[in-house]
Design a protein that fits this description.
The protein is built from seven helices and 17 strands. By secondary structure, it is of the alpha/beta class. β5 and β6 form a beta hairpin. α5 packs across α6. The two termini are 35 Å apart.
């Protein structure tokens, strides 16, 4: 299967540059994965597609203001440093993306905020990323909150006026360089209505890396090297998901990050284990889903691993037809854009439970 099989034509003006004033007022395309039928709704209508006994799985990661603008200590040249993840066991060392990177050799020192924070490049690692050791006085997170900017995707050119809009209302644990954007549509009021209907909400954590925006550069998708992200499923969430399936309910993943976490930590019979791990799972057509029975997601970039994941669940032809319809109907695309609810394709675990 080729990367070009997942191409679609998107007019540039349909890329959403700003979030809507009301998170839940975005449009919602409902796609039946069995028939390919499409309905046009608004996101707050998603409650009509959730049943008592279902479980909604959300990713409670929090995007940090990970974009730092500094200058080289030696020359004063401007440097941008994007924090990707903290290196395990080394509190002050982060894996970063440095621009321009060619001259950011080991030993290069970068000053931020007039000296409030200083970093030194210590090593060059995979894909040209840099390890940077930071020096500071006080609490790093407080300094980052003061100096950092939200790391918006490259296709968003407008300045974000309210940092909170690039986080979900349930964001809890710092660690992401990009938002789990499907969750941006939920408000606290909508979540309360969903709970009141008898739908359970189960949190997990996957810290989203910038690899989610990296294009697939190989002609054959199976040759693509998938990025690695850290994920966690609490004991209570694993128990709730397994109980939901045992009682015949559906597990609906909010976002591809929730889906990838569930499928990474699933047993062959569809049960989910608790714990944490680094995952580089790559889901594309032909994949047999073990846990997920439905997916709430945004509209993704052409030829991306994310549109491949959605196609694995609903079928490439149906997904591309739905995207063509979304373009025709002038939906808003990508991080601050509209959403899809894809349902109807049953997981391995769901089918096995029905048989029993």
């Amino acid at each position: 299967m080729k990367t070009s099989d997942f191409y679609y034509d998107l007019p540039k003006e349909l890329i959403a540059q700003d979030p809507l004033a009301d998170r839940s007022a975005s449009r919602l395309m409902c796609l039946d994965a069995k028939t390919g039928a499409v309905l046009h709704r608004h996101f707050h209508d998603v409650i009509e597609y959730l049943n008592p006994g279902d479980t909604l799985v959300i990713n409670n990661t929090k995007v940090i203001p990970a974009r730092l603008i500094g200058e080289k200590e030696e020359t004063g040249a401007a440097v941008e440093v994007l924090l990707l993840n903290r290196v395990k066991g080394r509190e002050a060392v982060w894996e970063t993306l440095v621009r321009p990177g060619k001259k950011a050799r080991p030993g290069t020192r970068i000053v931020f905020g007039g000296g409030l924070l200083t970093g030194e490049v210590t090593d060059i690692v995979e894909e040209g990323n840099r390890y940077v050791r930071f020096e500071y006085e006080g609490v790093f997170e407080e300094i980052l909150d003061r100096l950092g900017e939200m790391p918006l995707p490259p296709y968003i050119t407008h300045k974000l006026q309210d940092r909170s809009r690039y986080n979900t209302v349930y964001a809890k644990y710092d660690g992401s360089a990009a938002a789990p954007t499907a969750g941006l549509h939920f408000t606290q009021d909508l979540l309360e209505k969903i709970r009141a209907k008898g739908v359970k909400i189960a949190p997990l954590t996957l810290h989203v890396g910038l690899g989610t925006f990296r294009p697939v550069k190989t002609e054959e998708i199976t040759q693509h090297h998938m990025h690695t992200e850290h994920c966690i499923i609490p004991v209570s969430t694993a128990r709730l998901i397994n109980e939901t399936h045992a009682s015949g309910g559906r597990v609906i993943a909010v976002g591809t990050t929730s889906c990838r976490t569930l499928e990474s930590m699933a047993e062959e019979d569809g049960t989910v284990r608790s714990g944490e791990m680094d995952t580089s799972i790559f889901i594309y057509p032909g994949y047999r889903f073990r846990v997920m029975d439905g997916l709430i997601t945004n509209f993704h970039l052409p030829e991306s691993t994310l549109i491949m994941l959605v196609s694995a669940y609903a079928g490439r032809d149906k997904v591309l037809a739905a995207y063509e319809e979304a373009v025709k109907e002038r939906y808003r695309f990508f991080s601050f854009g509209d959403a899809m609810f894809v349902y109807g394709a049953e997981s391995l675990g769901y089918r096995s439970r029905v048989v029993r």
